[in-house]
Amino acid sequence: MITKIFFTMLVIIVVGMIFKSQNQGKAAATESQKAANEKPDKTASLAPKTVAYLLIGLLIVVSGVVGYFSWSDSNQVVTLRVINAGGTLSEYQAYRKDIRGREFT
Predict the structure, then answer these.
(1) What is the β-pairing status of strands 103-104 and 77-83?
(2) Are 32 and 38 in contact (CB under 8 A)?
(3) Could you tell me the pLDDT band of residue 6, with boundaries at 50, 70 and 90?
(4) What phi-psi label fits residue 104: left (phi over 0), alpha (psi between -120 and 50 degrees) or beta?
(5) Which of 6, 45, 51, 57 has the highest local Cβ count within 10 Å?
(6) Domain count, the chain
(7) Taking a C-beta distance cutoff of 8 angstroms, is the pair 36, 81 a contact?
(8) What is the pLDDT of residue 7?
(9) What pLDDT is stored for residue 22 in this prediction?
(10) Residue-level pLDDT at 14
(11) In this structure, are 101 and 65 located in the same domain?
C-alpha cells in the first residue's frame, strides 16, 4: 500500500517536472526569437530532464526490488503440521503462496 502511494507521488512529481521543462522550453524559444544572435541556455532544461530520468530509473529499480521480495516470500517452502480428528499428526511441505487461510493445495 505504501509503495502505491510512493509510486503515485513520484509520478505526480515527474509529470510536474515535465510540464515545467516544457514551459521553460517555450520561454527559451520566445527569447531566441527576440535575440537571434544569442544562444538559449540548455543547461537549465537539462537538469529537470536528468532528474526525471533518474526518478524513472529509481521507480523501475524499486519496482523490481519489491517484485523480487514478493516473489521470494511467496516461493518460500514452509512445513505444515495437520492434526486430524483422530489426533494423528501429519506433516506437509508447501509453498507459502499455496496456503490460503486454513487450506493449502
Answers:
(1) unpaired
(2) yes
(3) confident
(4) beta
(5) 45
(6) 2
(7) no
(8) 82
(9) 77
(10) 84
(11) no
- d(CA 77, CA 73) in angstroms, rounded, equals 9
Question: Which tens digits make up the pLDDT trace of 59-81?
Answer: 999 999 999 999 999 899 999 99
Is the pLDDT reported for residue 34 higher than 80? Answer: no
- Whether the CB-CB separation of 105 and 94 falls below 8 Å is answered with yes
Contacts of 54 (CB under 8 A, 6+ apart): none
Q: Which residues on neighbouring strands pair with residue 83, listed in sequence order?
A: 89
Q: Which domain holds residue 67?
A: 2-74
Long-range contacts of 13-17 (CB under 8 A, 24+ apart): 13/55, 14/52, 14/55, 14/56, 17/48, 17/51, 17/52, 17/55
Is residue 66 located within the same domain as residue 82? no
Contact 80, 91 (CB under 8 A): yes
Indicate if 17 and 40 belong to the same structural domain. Answer: yes
Predicted TM-score (pTM) above 0.70 = no
